[in-house]
Design brief:
The structure is a single chain. β2 and β3 form a beta hairpin. The protein is mostly beta strands and 281 residues long. Strands 1, 4, 6, 7, 9, 11 and 12 form a seven-stranded mixed β-sheet that branches. The protein has a five-stranded antiparallel β-sheet with strand order 2-3-5-10-8, with no helix packed on it. Strands 16-15-18-19 form a four-stranded antiparallel β-sheet, with no helix packed on it. It starts with 6 loop residues before the first strand and ends with a strand. It has two domains: 164 residues, Immunoglobulin-like; 105 residues, Immunoglobulins (Immunoglobulin-like, Sandwich), CATH 2.60.40. It contains no helices and 19 strands.
Length: 281
């Protein structure tokens, strides 16, 4: 019986993180700060810091990608802007484009906004994509090939990626947010889950933190929900959102009310974007 030759196929498993930004983002062994890059007013240059918290040296290629946000908060890569969406990439420069970091090493990447003087008022958004390059084994370290094997070998190499938004804002800020369709359900009859819809109008994206407080009939206030870095990007006018609440047996979710607040992320003086109340029964 004729034996077939063995073929080694390498398949790259791309795992990308397209999330609303937190204070510091981590995926694999890479930390990035700040959480986003926003050019407005006279600002034309911003530095971001990359840090390797892993035990091995890692190399990351940096590029710009275009992303749309879906109504349920998911992300999709695109090549053409949706109606009402404008890309920032033609007006963004950054360097270096490749970064190699030893364990516990950090490096700065400089982001610049260029040729923005003639831009029409509005918001322009693209995303910086940090893609880890797969580690290659030195020659001689590959697994020995069994000559009598008549199957195809497939090797999966995980490749990690992170994106952060890069936004250029031109003109006077214009954004308004309301919260609607609030509903409280119970998973497995015990775990409370709150859902609602963001409604955004105006020319700018909005992002911030969600806080949910339970107000008991007697007036006692207990924080039962926190979600950091939630975004609604242009041109989306709505975004569905839901998350589990906490509180355990100390909170009666069948009495009192829930106060949902969406505020800009700020340690000094958070700006309240929207607030909504749901009465509990």
């Amino acid at each position: 019986m004729r034996k077939l030759p063995v073929r080694h196929l390498t398949m790259l498993l791309l795992i990308s993180l397209f999330l609303s930004p937190g204070i510091i983002k981590a995926q694999g062994d890479l930390l990035i700060t700040p959480r986003r890059v926003v050019f407005e007013g006279n600002k034309r240059s911003i530095d971001i810091s990359l840090a390797n918290i892993g035990k091995d040296t890692a190399t990351y290629n940096i590029s710009l990608v275009q992303i749309r946000m879906t109504e349920d908060g998911g992300f999709e890569t695109i090549t053409e802007p949706d109606e009402g969406q404008s890309f920032a990439s033609p007006y963004i420069r950054f360097f270096p484009r490749t970064v190699t970091l030893k364990p516990d090493e950090a490096q700065t990447v400089k982001i610049q906004a260029v040729r923005t003087g003639d831009l029409a008022p509005g918001e322009y958004r693209s995303h910086l994509y940090f893609r880890a390059t797969p580690k290659e084994k030195p020659l001689g370290e590959e697994s020995p090939v069994q000559q009598e094997q008549a199957t195809i070998s497939i090797k999966l190499v995980p490749v990690f990626g992170i994106t952060i938004p890069v936004i250029i804002r031109v003109g006077t800020p214009s954004v308004n947010v309301t919260l609607s369709d609030l509903a409280l359900t119970f998973e497995n009859d015990t775990l409370p889950r709150l859902s609602f819809v963001f409604n955004r109008t105006g020319d700018y994206s909005v992002y911030g933190d969600i806080e949910v407080d339970h107000v008991a009939p007697g007036g006692t206030v207990t924080t039962v929900g926190l979600a950091k870095g939630v975004a609604v990007y242009t041109p989306n006018t709505t975004r569905k959102f839901s998350f589990n609440l906490m509180g355990g047996g100390a909170v009666d979710f069948h009495s009192g009310r829930l106060v949902v607040t969406f505020s800009a992320s700020s340690d000094v003086r958070p700006e309240k974007y929207a607030e909504a109340i749901i009465d509990l029964h």
